[in-house]
Amino acid sequence: MSDLREELNEEAQVPADAEAPLRALAAVQGLLQQYRQADETAQRPAPGEAASDDTPTETLTPQQLLLALKAIIDALHPADIANILEALPPPERLLVWNQVDAEHDGEILLELSDAVRESLMAKMDREDLVAATENLDADEIADLAPDLPRDVVEEVVSALPLEEREQLRAALSYPEDTVGGSMDFDLITIRNDVTLEVVLRYLRRWDRLPDHTDQVFVIDRDDLLRGSLPLNRLLVNEPEVMVEDVMRKELLTFDPLDDISDAAHAFERYDMVSAPVVDAAGKLVGRLTIDEIVDVIREEGEEQALSKAGLQEEDLFASLLSSARNRAPWLLLNLCTAAIAAFVASRFEATVEKIVMLAFLMSIVAGIGGNSGNQTMTVIIRALALGFITPSNVSRLVRKELLVALVVGSIGGAIAGFFAWAISGRFTLGVVMMAAMMLNLLVGASIGIVVPLLRARFGKDPAIGSSVLLTFATDTMGFLIFLGLATLFLL
Amino acid sequence: MSDLREELNEEAQVPADAEAPLRALAAVQGLLQQYRQADETAQRPAPGEAASDDTPTETLTPQQLLLALKAIIDALHPADIANILEALPPPERLLVWNQVDAEHDGEILLELSDAVRESLMAKMDREDLVAATENLDADEIADLAPDLPRDVVEEVVSALPLEEREQLRAALSYPEDTVGGSMDFDLITIRNDVTLEVVLRYLRRWDRLPDHTDQVFVIDRDDLLRGSLPLNRLLVNEPEVMVEDVMRKELLTFDPLDDISDAAHAFERYDMVSAPVVDAAGKLVGRLTIDEIVDVIREEGEEQALSKAGLQEEDLFASLLSSARNRAPWLLLNLCTAAIAAFVASRFEATVEKIVMLAFLMSIVAGIGGNSGNQTMTVIIRALALGFITPSNVSRLVRKELLVALVVGSIGGAIAGFFAWAISGRFTLGVVMMAAMMLNLLVGASIGIVVPLLRARFGKDPAIGSSVLLTFATDTMGFLIFLGLATLFLL
Prior knowledge:
The structure is a homodimer of 491-residue chains.
Chain A lengths: L1 H9 L9 H24 L7 H4 L7 H13 L3 H10 L2 H10 L5 H7 L2 H9 L3 H9 L3 H7 L5 H10 L2 H12 L5 H4 L6 E2 L5 H9 L10 E5 L5 E6 H6 L6 H4 L13 H11 L3 E5 L5 E6 H19 L11 H27 L2 H6 L2 H29 L8 H31 L2 H31 L8 H25 L1
Helix pairs in contact in A: 2-4, 2-5, 5-6, 5-7, 9-11, 10-12, 17-18, 19-24, 21-22, 21-23, 21-24, 22-23, 23-24
């Protein structure tokens, strides 16, 4: 029974309802506020030295508050502790971090965003880092390794059993965005020439099965993968049946160098919980599980949203300097493109001098071209991500997008033209406005199609950087087309 | 053994490698192209009636091509067939759809995007729809129900066993974005006062366990949830142990009315595969599984990307009309805000008339303000989504974002000011440019913070619509500030 208890305690603490972590965060923030006040009071002792005895009972000492804080933290799941750390400004974050049981440090670091993890690891000394890392699995150590000092990694590696040392070396050898970079080594393997009864007895010898074990892998004497026995089949078939007769022989396997994002699509499509990873020789080397895949999917979505705004993941309470460093490059890039567009427009100074109204209308042409191109680009990037675009349908797609731009451009152009006519009293200006709008929507649609397709063609993420190019094109061309037509027809 | 075979065949066909679906799509497109050509040839018979006998052996007849197509399709997983349908233009899509075995229609419809599903269902007659729907589980029928004609739903409902009819009614009663709208009813329940041996024997009576069964639920005589027995614990403990002694008593449960997106965060944080759904009385009513959660996470990411461009999910080959209808409202909305901004700027016609260079510089001020505000907004929306923003840290966050805008604005403003000075030769214009940039970056940061916070406060999705307001504010205020300062200091 004591074994059992231990096992139960080993499982991380999941709360009884989904709101509990929010309440814990609020409680922690409340305690921290009291702590700040208590700390200030302690530093400015009231006149009269016996004051510490007279402290009203409802006011806790800083030490008591820290104990209360620790009690809350200790009851939480590592992922919830990580979330609390993310939501706290640096000094309080460090205070809470110091209350965490050292044995959970590693699990929590794994759950943190890169930025916050780095900031906490920078404050840990060598000993703490070794302690936090040494209890982790090889694949988890590999995740933390890039942020660890070299000598800490070496110390942890040298303490590992030979098998895990090799796993760690393997995990470190694969890039982050590959299957190999996300796989784990928690494999249960069996042979095909035994009965299910034998498998059941074998499993009872484990203290607990690895998380997300929905199948055990069937290998031969050379570690080559022969199939898999889903627990489902293990449980519904009679014990005397042979593994060979009920195992799944046709399996979706991944290569360690496969793109993790392709693997995520496969997990999604086929509703998998785990999948085997085999090397080129067919040898089982690892396992991919749905929890890693969920993280990949969420991170991809976040990264896309951030990269569209020209950002990298950022600690919510990053220092002023590091925030500014994260944001300035994008703004300076946009400043350059905007300056070039403005410079192009300024070549028509003589035209604008004569018809000042053009100055106010030209930004409409540029803006709507950008909006429309962004729609096209979003549609194309989504279709590329889902694998819907193939050589045989791409020309049809291009035609369709250009036609849509033309239709929408006619409607929008007519309205904008009418507005221009109304505000300026010049009919020809209205016509120029309409023509410029339509043409600039075509520019936007073309860039919105071509840029993501080309980036995807050359193996780049189609989302990143495309929007700068789009805005640059629709601004510059918008000014050029509108002011050019105006110079031709209005002067 | 025949039972076993049947079970194996029931499982959907997962390919051996992740690239297989792409090859299948290419093969289908190739066959369709041949079919189109063969079809055209057949309609324009060559002179000489005996031509059909002389057909070279390498050219297949349209019938043979359709058979080849069907052979490819039949070997695919429903999710892969759905993907192929999404990637085909409407006439070919329908052709492929007609080759699908009617018994798989339902599963495929469930995997399709709303737009494509609706288009295919519109082409199906009553009988096909009933056939496609009647073999699905209650929760799956509920997913299709909104697109089905009322009488089809009624016919399907009336054919269901009583229990499933009630499940369907329950599933239909919950909104799509709740736990109830995503749960299934594939529950395996056991009692707490039996041994694991009894549970193992009970499970052997099933033909197969429901997908994603990683735990069986322990209920009492009133269907109240008492705990859960993870298969993990069932397998590692001795058969004579009682369920009561090894079951998990502290469980994260969901209410059918909980927000599905909160549930997704919980699955992500606690790495769950399934979770029980209980009603207010504590009665077990359903089960949430990771495959539904993965879909939710992916859809949320996609919806956010689309809504930022003012789009709804759209069939890649939607008709011109429906595409234009999807995109025009957003562009017209942006046209309105751009026209208002232009109108505000035009109030300074007299100023611009005197210094035409202002016309070209004002768009830089507006644009960079929008870019910077978008960065702030992206950071805030992400922090809101992750639950990092609380009443106790919000003022700190606001202060930080405004300071970052000020720092970045000083750098960008200095550069832009220098550019303005260089291009115009007027030092004061450079100073006005710099001041306007800094002020407009503050406008952008304020809107980028306040709008998402307010929308979240009132229970709206903070991402939707925020960007229109942002662009409107940074354009209008950018023009106003820049031209206003110019009027004050340059005339």
